[in-house]
Design goal:
The complex is a heterodimer of chains A (312) and B (409).
Chain A lengths: L1 E8 L4 H14 L3 E6 L9 E9 L14 E4 L21 E4 L5 H8 L4 E4 L15 H13 L4 H12 L4 H17 L31 H4 L20 E5 L10 H5 L5 E3 L5 E3 L9 H5 L5 E5 H8 L6
Parallel strand pairs in A: 1-4, 4-5, 5-6
Antiparallel strand pairs in A: 1-3, 2-3, 7-10, 8-9
Helix pairs in contact in A: 1-3, 1-4, 3-5, 4-5
Chain B lengths: L1 E6 H11 L4 E4 L6 H13 L5 E4 L3 H13 L5 E4 L1 H6 L1 H9 L5 E6 L13 H4 L7 E4 L3 H16 L7 E6 L6 E7 L2 H7 L25 H33 L6 E4 L6 E4 L5 H13 L4 E6 L1 E3 L3 H7 L5 E6 L9 H11 L7 E6 L9 H17 L6 E2 L3 H13 L6
Parallel strand pairs in B: 2-3, 4-5, 5-7, 6-7, 10-11, 10-13, 13-14, 14-15
Antiparallel strand pairs in B: 1-8, 6-12, 9-11
Helix pairs in contact in B: 1-2, 1-7, 3-5, 8-9, 10-13, 11-12
The chains are: A alpha/beta (312), B alpha/beta (409).
The structure holds iron/sulfur cluster (SF4) (2 copies).
């Protein structure tokens, strides 16, 4: 069976990627399962989708425990724990990244024992969330890596899945996808279907006896205010608001009032300060500032620049 | 006939479309909403005939479904979890009207705490309502079960509404290859609904769902529902055979897998049983004689079929994706009662609770359940019911509690 997982951000088309690859496998005569993992997702939030394909009926369900191939559409996801990009990967697994950095850098940095490859330069745009066809490109790369999906089938699958978006979008996607498919010819068949380990090779699950705990502890309640501060929703951001303090008139209320996340505080000198741990990048503050003192910049570049092992 | 990739939700919508339903009362809820969106889209595009109405709640939706079915139209509707519970009063009521229609439930764990992913406490909360229950394990089965359900619901000897259940996420949002039968073939299998004496229309005054004061009258009506529900067990096979003759897929009241020479087996309902099949394959590779029994019908409860299927089995791991507070696994309880009243040499049962709120059940857990069940047979010591829960999961729970400032100690 082939087990492939796509990681990206809401809006990058990871569900579409899994559907294109799923349809392509299906058209090649495979049994298929594809699904997106839904949660409280939104644009920019880490999401993943997956595909299983086999010549035999598939007797698995739900998330993939041990992926053969993981395709990552935004490399900043590798810097944070929450998306679980490396979850279940083995030395036989392959990691394929949409990244400007060298695969070797990621391999060392992640201390990952399997092979790491990079997608060829997709577009001139460096910001993954601005790459309009990245989902389709990831699907095309996946199709190439498994080596059992012809160019004709890939084309058909893209047409089938994107049909409702209209001709022009289909054509643009086809162009990008087929270019990447051709560029990656050397990788054809790098991913082989893997078989399951035998019963004896699985560790015993560490079951516990569920202890009784009284309702003060075991009722689903939160016993304090503002615990959502511990959830760094800043990692959902694809665009970053930046305040130009030379232009800020310290009106001291407009941007901070409009921020739906309460992520702007005003310091004692009357200057607004953005809490990037929690700012989701909606840019309402930018819209509202009467003095145009807030600008947006691309988060991806900022994250990789500022990241020296720190959290974003 | 075409074979294509469909989610469980799309398969449900296709079932309704092929059944050529007249009326779809609807109310959205995750993870079911895609079903009614798909049907609404088809009706809007003129690809599907019939009437689509959005109601203001599931309570009204089920009332509308039952009322429409009472007029002799074919009705399909869908809900999930809290929605099913919100409509619970009317579930009992419309079943009592003996109004036959099909309700798709997309399983989702119940509040509190609120969640999105599946377990069977929602559907099993409706188990005493008079609705029949069909539990699906694949997207194909979802489509096929809708067609089977209309035949069962409309059968003269049954005349009760049916809930078809599919698991949220694991089926609802998962695409698999599904054969979509040709409409001509479906029409042969499922002709237009002939309501005969349940027809209820303007200009022909009748009363339905009347009040009866006096327990003896009441008992009569309620027990008749019970008998009608039980009748399903005798008509199921011939309807399923008819289905197989038309579409080539044979459904039993139970699905049995690798049971011929089995000494041990898993018993469980729903789509997680797919995982159990994989575990059975791997255990057989390792020399085990083990199989799987999956009841498709939960109401009526297929007691005889289960007793027959488990004859000669030494030990059974019963995996309940539900939890009856203060009792335990519902499937385990019902299976035990079925075996207790049978004459056969009953197998030993070990009870597991797993998959609550969509919690995964891993291969190694299936293996361990098999080992524990064998050990129980060898020693005669049956372990206490167990929740599938690991050390690491409790550690994660502790982290959450720390964030939530749980008052330790
Ligand atoms: S709204 Fe603009 S001017 Fe006012 S405090 Fe915010 S950044 Fe400064
Ligand atoms: S971008 Fe949105 S979330 Fe971030 S600081 Fe501005 S208003 Fe708040």
């Amino acid at each position: 069976m082939y087990r492939i997982r796509f990681h990206g951000r809401g809006g990058q088309g990871m569900k579409t990627a899994s559907r294109i690859l799923g349809t392509a496998f299906f058209l090649e005569g495979f049994e298929v399962q594809d699904a997106q993992r839904y949660g409280a997702e939104r644009r920019g939030a880490p999401i993943f989708a997956y595909v299983r394909a086999s010549r035999e009926p598939i007797k698995e369900r739900g998330i993939i425990q041990r992926p053969d191939l993981v395709i990552v559409a935004d490399d900043t996801l590798l810097l944070i724990d929450a998306p679980g990009v490396l979850k279940g990967m083995t030395p036989q697994s392959v990691l394929l990244l949409n990244s400007e950095e060298e695969p070797k850098m990621w391999k060392d940095r992640l201390n990952f024992s399997g092979a790491v490859f990079a997608l060829p330069d997709v577009q001139d745009l460096k910001e993954p969330t601005e790459q309009l066809h990245i989902g389709t490109v990831c699907a095309a790369a996946g199709a190439r890596f498994v080596g059992v999906i012809s160019q004709k089938t890939l084309k058909q699958a893209i047409q089938d899945e994107l049909d409702i978006l209209g001709n022009q979008i289909v054509e643009e996607n086809l162009e990008q996808a087929l270019r990447v498919y051709d560029l990656m010819e050397a990788y054809a068949g790098k991913i082989k279907p893997s078989s399951e380990p035998a019963v004896a090779d699985y560790p015993d699950p560490a079951w516990i006896e569920m202890p009784y705990e009284d309702a003060r502890i075991s009722a689903p309640a939160i016993h304090a205010a503002a615990t959502s501060l511990k959830n760094p929703t800043g990692l959902w951001r694809t665009l970053r608001p930046v305040i130009d303090y030379d232009r800020c008139h310290r009106c001291s209320s407009i941007c901070s009032t409009f921020c739906p996340e309460n992520a702007i505080s005003v310091n004692e000198n009357g200057y607004p300060q953005i809490d990037y741990q929690h700012c989701k990048g909606c840019l309402l503050c930018m819209e509202q500032c009467p003095h145009h003192a807030i600008e947006s910049s691309l988060e991806h570049t900022k994250t990789l620049e500022s990241d020296k092992g720190d959290e974003i | 006939m075409t074979r294509r990739l469909l989610t469980g939700n799309a398969a449900a919508a296709w079932g309704a479309r092929l059944a050529e339903v007249d009326y779809v009362p609807a109310f959205p809820i995750t993870p079911q909403t895609e079903i009614i969106e798909t049907i609404a889209h088809w009706m809007d595009q003129g690809e599907m005939a019939g009437r689509f109405t959005t109601l203001e709640s599931e309570h009204s939706m089920i009332t509308a479904a039952g009322s429409a079915a009472a007029t002799g139209t074919r009705v399909f509707t869908a809900t999930s979890s809290q929605g099913l519970l919100y409509g619970m009063e009317m579930l009992y009521t419309v079943a009592g009207w003996r109004a036959p229609f099909v309700l798709m439930n997309v399983s989702r764990g119940l509040s509190s705490p609120i969640t999105l992913e599946p377990d069977h406490n929602d559907i099993l909360a409706a188990r005493d309502s008079g609705f029949l229950q069909i539990h699906c394990a694949t997207c194909q089965e979802v489509l096929d079960s809708v067609l089977l359900a209309f035949r069962l619901a409309e059968d003269d000897s049954v005349r009760l509404p049916v809930i078809v259940n599919q698991d949220g996420f694991y089926l609802s949002y998962t695409r698999e290859p599904v054969e979509i039968p040709d409409i001509e073939e479906v029409r042969k299998f499922l002709p237009a609904f002939d309501p005969e004496n349940t027809q209820f229309r303007a200009g022909e005054p009748r009363s339905q769902g009347v009040a009866v004061l006096g327990g003896a009258f009441y008992s009569y009506f309620r027990y008749e529902m019970h008998l009608a529900c039980l009748n399903t067990l005798s008509v199921f096979d011939s309807i399923a055979q008819d289905f197989a003759d038309h579409f080539g897929r044979k459904y039993g009241i139970l699905e049995t897998y690798q049971m011929d020479d089995a000494e041990f087996c898993f018993v469980m309902a729903g789509s997680f049983a797919t995982k159990a099949k994989n575990a059975v394959d791997l255990l057989r590779d390792a020399g085990w004689k083990i199989g799987l029994v999956r009841p498709r019908l939960i109401r009526p409860f297929p007691a005889d079929a289960l007793c027959r299927a488990l004859t000669g089995i030494h030990g059974v791991a019963v995996i309940d994706q539900n939890l009856s507070m203060g009792k335990g696994g519902i499937l385990y309880t019902e299976l035990a009662s079925a075996l207790y009243s049978s004459n056969s040499n009953s197998p030993l049962l070990v009870s597991y609770i797993g998959g609550l709120g969509g919690r995964d059940i891993t291969r190694e857990e299936f293996f361990k359940m098999a080992r524990e069940t064998r050990h129980a047979v060898e020693t005669g010591k049956v372990p206490l019911p167990r929740l599938l829960y690991t050390e690491d999961e409790l550690r994660q729970m502790r982290k959450l509690q720390t964030i939530a400032h749980a008052p330790w100690g």
